[in-house]
Design brief:
mainly alpha; globular; binds zinc ion; 108 residues; 4 helices
Length: 108
């Protein structure tokens, strides 16, 4: 699986956690599924391709303002909950962010 594919899965999980637990929907509501489609599209179009950092570090910067705000809320809500509902995904995501930080420091 490519990095972009993995990133799409992480975002899909986060949106689902948010919609189910914060908004109380059994299935993804229209607004959330639209945002998810938008997020996937942004990832597919990402100029960094598979060398991109994780979504928190990068994705949000290329979002339209209203989408960015909603995605920020979703990440704030779902980020910590990923450890409960999807611990493996959360861990690999976290390790990737740490690696990215370390890689950046080494470049300087
Ligand atoms: Zn929703």
């Amino acid at each position: 699986m490519t990095r972009i594919e993995r990133e799409k899965r992480v975002i899909a999980k986060m949106v689902m956690i948010y919609c189910r637990h914060k908004e109380g929907n059994a299935t993804l509501c229209d607004e959330c599924s639209e945002l998810l489609e938008y997020a996937k599209l942004r990832l597919s179009l990402c100029p960094h391709g598979n060398a991109k950092p994780t979504c928190r570090k990068c994705t949000i910067h290329c979002y339209k303002p209203e989408k960015r705000e909603k995605m920020r809320q979703i990440m704030r809500y779902s980020g910590p909950r990923m450890l409960i509902y999807s611990p493996l995904t959360a861990l690999t995501h976290l390790i990737r962010e740490l690696n990215f930080d370390l890689g950046k420091k080494k470049e300087r």
